[in-house]
Design brief:
2 copies of one chain form a homodimer.
Chain A (H helix, E strand, L loop, with lengths): L6 H8 L3 H8 L7 H14 L5 H8 L4 E7 L8 H17 L2 E7 L3 H11 L6 E5 L6 H8 L4 E4 L9 E5 L1 H15 L4 E5 L5 H16 L9 E3 L4 H12 L7 E4 L2 H14 L8 E3 L14 E3 L2 H18 L6 E4 L2 E3 L11
Parallel strand pairs in A: 1-2, 1-3, 3-4, 4-5, 5-11, 6-7, 6-8, 8-9
Antiparallel strand pairs in A: 10-12
Helix pairs in contact in A: 1-2, 1-3, 5-12, 6-7, 8-9, 10-11
The first copy, chain A, binds a DNA duplex through helix 2 and helix 4.
Chain lengths: 340, 340
DNA sequence: GTGAAAGCGCTAACAC
DNA sequence: GTGTTAGCGCTTTCAC
């Protein structure tokens, strides 16, 4: 590898001091015009590029934000994450910020990964996704007064910036849609109950039942894990019941797709024999004509990143909370129940 | 934000020198046992965590590898990328490496993003994906003798490490499968032709036709862009021809899914009215019973990362080239053609 | 075994 | 306008 070109190299080459070279190259303060030109000519010629690490150390800023993906199990594959990353990446590009990414399963190592980024000063801020009720990440970041934004709320008594979907209202609407079609045996495949949105979504579901005077049956609520496999397992259980539901609401689209694939396998017709609905409206969902609640993940990710960068750049203290209404998308996976 | 704890803080606290503290904390050389204990006690108490930036500057190593996602158009969403990131992230976690990620459309800014990571010394190595025939990224990295590995080959006369799928053999098999079913009007939705794998895949397709004495018809080859929308557009064109194909091979699953969605829309039955096949075997593909060539993206990503980290850690010079055979997965999207 | 000194490459305060 | 000095936080000779 050829000898690195540093400010020193240019300084020696031009016979000027390192300081002057630095100033000329960052368009700082007053440098004589011909000096500036001489220096940038030399910089070009020598192929100078500033060492970001040195700059970071000096400026105590990394121009980087961090994201640690909570991956449950190996080989996670969730369109949610690719939309998220695309949104964050595209937005950060506008500010010349970089994204430092780790994948880590929730648990002990997880906080270590956060410490590494935070206390190791690898990033200027963090995006926290899939918030949990007693979220140790949020507790930790808040305690460290480190800049962060979250995709989702938490049950902690902590004031922080977030964007979230109003899952309660969403599932209220969705469940009411099914009820209006004539369903009263409606099952719910829930997310892991430590996730905050699990409660909101479940609450919306229960509220709709209540309003329609349908008795809430706990056996109809099966815990899922947000993966397709999880959706499949839960659906199999539900359909094996002696009094199976006529409609299944999954807490996200991926599990709903799992449900659909089980129905297909059993030769049941989606939206006829059993109605299915989800949440997210990820790319494949329209192809299955899945009734769902649309959550603009990409846009939310962009907005979150913008919020975070502004916090960092302006040192903003006040927190911003945004609650979005998901949009009900009715497709053919939900229909009137068969007369039984 | 509370005062940062550095080596100096601990040094003052314990009355020892910064050097000794550093040595004690990195388990280096000989430090008296009680000194070491005293120091780690103090470090714990004060909540010390080494500043990674400073360490990087000193060691001239970042323990980070870079990935710049070539995103065509806004809101890209390709399961290919999430599998890739998952694989890289999981593997890097084993080595305590981080991943620095950018999204950038191919073009002028793209190389700037590479320069930023390479010459700005932000990373120790790079993963290049979706290689192109005259790939400026590979040319650049090779010229800079910067460690990198690629997912895919290139037409450049450059020796570098890569893993690639044998697309030619794959598409030969896939096309022969369709021919054996009785198809002779087989269309091909190609990737952008500047991508290296486009040629291999096209070549496999043509080779199969040739071997079966089927005349190659250029009108049956439509350029796509690897997205679902692109697959839809191409399919519409193909089906509107006066002599439409009975089978459509798409260069990747995403475009194949686009083809399927057009067929559904037109009320045509997949695998019956028209056969469809793809490449990748991404998660949704099995749900559409898509015949495809399986490419283990996640595993390839892990292996690529391992190769790269080894190059970095051991300063390996010799290049490694791996060509994998994709596996033909026959499902119901391909069937015998209708008698016409 | 421990410390002093130098330096990674850069920016910033202060002189002149 | 430009140079000198100091320092970001760490590791690494080289003395003692």
């Amino acid at each position: 590898m050829s000898q690195r070109v540093t400010l020193k190299t240019i300084a020696q080459y031009t016979g000027l001091s390192v300081t002057t070279v630095s100033r000329a190259l960052t368009n700082y303060s007053d440098v004589a015009n011909d000096t500036r030109e001489k220096i940038s000519a030399a910089a070009n010629e020598l192929g100078y590029y500033p060492n970001q690490t040195a700059r970071q150390l000096q400026k105590q800023r990394t121009d980087t934000i961090g994201l640690i993906l909570p991956t449950y199990g190996p080989r996670f594959n969730d369109p949610y994450f690719s939309e998220l990353i695309a949104g964050i990446g595209d937005e950060l590009a506008l500010y010349n910020f970089d994204l430092l990414l780790s994948t880590r399963a929730p648990g002990v190592n997880e906080i270590a990964a956060y410490r590494h980024m935070v206390e190791g000063r690898r990033v200027d801020g963090l995006v926290v996704v899939r918030t949990r009720k007693q979220d140790p990440r949020i507790a930790y970041l808040s305690r460290s007064s480190f800049p962060f934004v979250a995709f989702g709320r938490s049950d902690l008594d902590i004031d922080f910036s977030y964007i979230d979907e109003d899952g309660e209202t969403g599932f209220l609407q969705l469940t009411q849609h099914l009820i209006s079609l004539g369903h009263c045996k409606i099952a719910f495949i829930s997310p892991p109950m430590n996730l905050v949105f699990a409660n909101y979504r479940l609450r919306g579901y229960r509220l709709a039942l209540e309003k329609a005077n349908i008795t809430y049956k706990p056996v109809y609520v099966i815990p899922g894990d947000l993966t397709r496999r999880g959706g499949e397992r839960a659906t199999r259980k539900l359909l094996a019941m002696e009094d199976p539901p006529t409609a299944i609401i999954a807490a996200n689209d991926l599990m709903a797709l799992g449900a659909i694939s089980v129905l297909n396998e059993l030769g049941l017709i989606v939206g006829k024999d059993v109605s299915i609905a989800g949440f997210d409206d990820i790319p494949p969902s329209d192809m299955f004509s899945l009734t769902t609640l649309r959550q603009p993940i990409y846009d939310i990710a962009r907005q979150l990143s913008a919020m975070l960068v502004n916090m960092i750049l302006n040192g903003t203290i006040e927190k911003k909370q945004i609650l979005l209404k998901p949009k009900l998308i009715i497709r053919n996976s939900t229909g009137v129940p068969l007369i039984s």
